[in-house]
Design brief:
This protein has about 400 residues and is an all-alpha fold. About 50% of the residues lie in helices and about 0% in strands. The chain has helices at about 1-25, 30-35, 50-55, 95-100, 155-185, 195-200, 205-225, 235-265, 270-300, 335-345, 375-390.
């Protein structure tokens, strides 16, 4: 009986051990993390597009093949009213209270630009924003250029003389241009007596000219006959002589080339000097080009048919110079100066002054009062005749 019980217990322990080996141990003794795990596969973590593409959700989607159900009056044509955005108003604040107490603040300044719509003045229009492509000018010239020191109301002697010299150069250029225009004009034609005789005697000595042409033709035919070379076959001695002469010429040419190479090798220093000279010339040319490019940046562009000439330099004669502002003579015109500044800075195109002119000629009519009574009677008769002709037609 003891052996049977022992065998039964042993069998049970054996079966339990095999089961634990297969299942990984007793589940009651294991932790939850060993028994369970979280499934992180794509089966349950689907996106909205996957859910929409599922067959079970296809019934909830709209079927476009079926027309929508509409009431008797049809779909409503009323549009939903959109709420208007509040208008942005400009900043009208003029400094804080602390700044006002100090007495130092900008009256027209706008320090608090990021004000809310409630703090802005609703009566004022919104601030205008310039477009992205808006630009004031292409040139690098300042809006207001500094005048010459010689234009001051009490200039120094040297500054005033420099200003007068620049004005003189401008006037000299103008005079030269006028002289060139008159000189380049077509001069009057002066016919001498020899030219007159030659012109009038054309065609008189026609027979002599024909005989001269015939002689020239005979001379040309003789020269052509002499120039023809007989196409005879050369002898062996002649060919050998030509070949030797050709080889000799080639040897002379190669010797000359070698001599030139040696000469160039000996004059390396001279070549280096030439290269340095060329480099200096190139650098000078590049500097000139750069200077011209800088001038182009400040020069006015051509935006019309006219050419910008600019104003003449403003100057005052030595006897007109005064040491006080009250006695100062002002030759400049501020409006004209601003207009030329706009043209110089490519803000407006160059324009010409339009002279006063009439599009149509004035029609002169003589009044009836100033005519004699006889002339008036004749005019009345003429008008009656014209009326009769029209009625008869």
């Amino acid at each position: 009986g003891i052996n049977a019980e022992y065998g039964k217990q042993w069998y049970q322990r054996r079966v339990r051990g095999i089961r634990e080996e297969r299942t990984g141990g007793n589940p009651t003794e294991k932790a939850d993390n060993d028994l369970f795990y979280i499934d992180k596969s794509d089966i349950f973590q689907t996106t909205k597009t996957k859910l929409a593409s599922m067959k079970c959700h296809s019934e909830l989607q709209i079927d476009t093949r079926v027309a929508p159900v509409v009431g008797r009056n049809g779909p409503s044509k009323k549009k939903k009213k959109r709420k208007k955005a509040p208008l942005a108003t400009p900043d009208v604040t003029m400094g804080t209270s602390a700044e006002k107490k100090q007495g130092v603040y900008d009256i027209w300044g706008s320090k608090s630009n990021n004000l809310s719509d409630s703090k802005r003045d609703p009566c004022l229009p919104p601030p205008v924003e310039p477009p992205a492509f808006y630009k004031t000018s292409d040139t690098k010239l300042a809006a207001v250029e500094l005048p010459h020191a010689g234009t001051s109301y009490n200039p120094t002697f040297n500054d005033h003389q420099e200003l007068l010299q620049s004005a003189l150069e401008v006037e000299v250029k103008k005079e030269k241009a006028k002289l060139k225009a008159t000189r380049d004009a077509a001069p009057p034609i002066q016919i001498t007596e020899e030219d007159y005789i030659k012109e009038m005697s054309i065609g008189l000595n026609q027979a002599e000219s024909e005989s001269e042409e015939e002689k020239e033709g005979e001379v040309e035919t003789d020269s052509q006959a002499k120039g023809t070379v007989s196409c005879e076959r050369k002898t062996r001695a002649q060919r050998n002589r030509e070949k030797a002469e050709k080889l000799k010429a080639e040897e002379i040419a190669t010797a000359k080339q070698e001599k030139q190479h040696l000469h160039q090798m000996n004059r390396i220093k001279a070549i280096q000097k030439e290269i340095k000279k060329e480099e200096k010339e190139l650098s000078a040319k590049t500097e000139l080009r750069q200077a011209k490019n800088l001038e182009k940046e400040t020069k006015p562009g051509k935006y019309g048919p006219g050419k910008f000439l600019g104003d003449d330099p403003e100057f005052v004669l030595p006897e007109e110079v005064s040491s006080s502002l009250r006695q100062m003579v002002t030759p400049s015109n501020n409006v004209q100066e601003r207009f030329t500044s706009f043209q110089k800075r490519n803000m407006i195109e160059v324009r010409k002054k339009v002279a006063p002119h009439r599009k149509y000629k004035l029609k002169s009519v003589e009044k009836w009062r100033k005519k004699l009574p006889e002339e008036i009677d004749e005019l009345v008769k003429m008008k009656r005749k014209k009326k009769k002709i029209k009625l008869s037609e």
